[in-house]
Amino acid sequence: MIASISGNCFGGGMQIALGADIRIAAPDARLSIMEVKWGLVPDMAITQSLPRLMAIDVAKELTFSGRIVSGRDGETLGLVTRTTEDPLASALALAEEIAQKSPDAVRAAKRLYNKTWTGADTAAALALETDLQRQLFGKPNQVAAVTAAVSKKLPTFVDPD
């Protein structure tokens, strides 16, 4: 999932954006984890998303203060992946680029990172890598990716789901 952020992205909207795999924001977008303003703590799985993006002291400062930051500052802090003047066009272009890759490989890579990025023990992470690679190797979409790369043509993938 790719989030395109422009204008205000506060509270629950920020949590939704943090749930995306990639966040592209306008430099002047306004971002905030502002539940403290309403006497609440952030929810919607923020305890799972923020540790993958930033240091705990930065997360605490943003959460405790409810400070509003720009998209550009959000990029520096880790709230957004990158900034661009036209985040929607950039998100759509990236989605098109990803769509030209094996859907099996993209799904497997997402699973691998989601399960192992933080807190996983090394042996379990390496075992999952190996298992996912074995599931992909020699399958129709993996063969199509290699064939397309060698022939310099667009791949044709099948989506079994």
Question: What share of residues is helical?
Answer: 40-55%
Structural class: mainly alpha
Q: Number of DSSP helices?
A: 8
Largest sheet: 3 strands, parallel
Average of pLDDT: 93
- Compute the number of strand runs: 6
Describe this structure in words.
It is a single chain. The protein is mainly α and 161 residues long. It has eight helices and six strands. The chain has helices at 12-18, 46-53, 56-65, 71-77, 87-99, 103-116, 122-136, 140-151, and strands at residues 2-5, 8-10, 22-25, 30-32, 69-70, 82-83. Strands 1-3-6 form a three-stranded parallel β-sheet, sandwiched between helices. Helix 6 runs antiparallel to helix 7. The longest helix has 15 residues, at 122-136.
Brief summary of the model shown:
It is built from eight helices and six strands. It is mainly alpha-helical and 161 residues long.
Strand-helix topology:
Blueprint: E1 2-5, E2 8-10, H1 12-18, E3 22-25, E4 30-32, H2 46-53, H3 56-65, E5 69-70, H4 71-77, E6 82-83, H5 87-99, H6 103-116, H7 122-136, H8 140-151
Parallel strand pairs: 1-3, 2-4, 3-6
Antiparallel strand pairs: 4-5
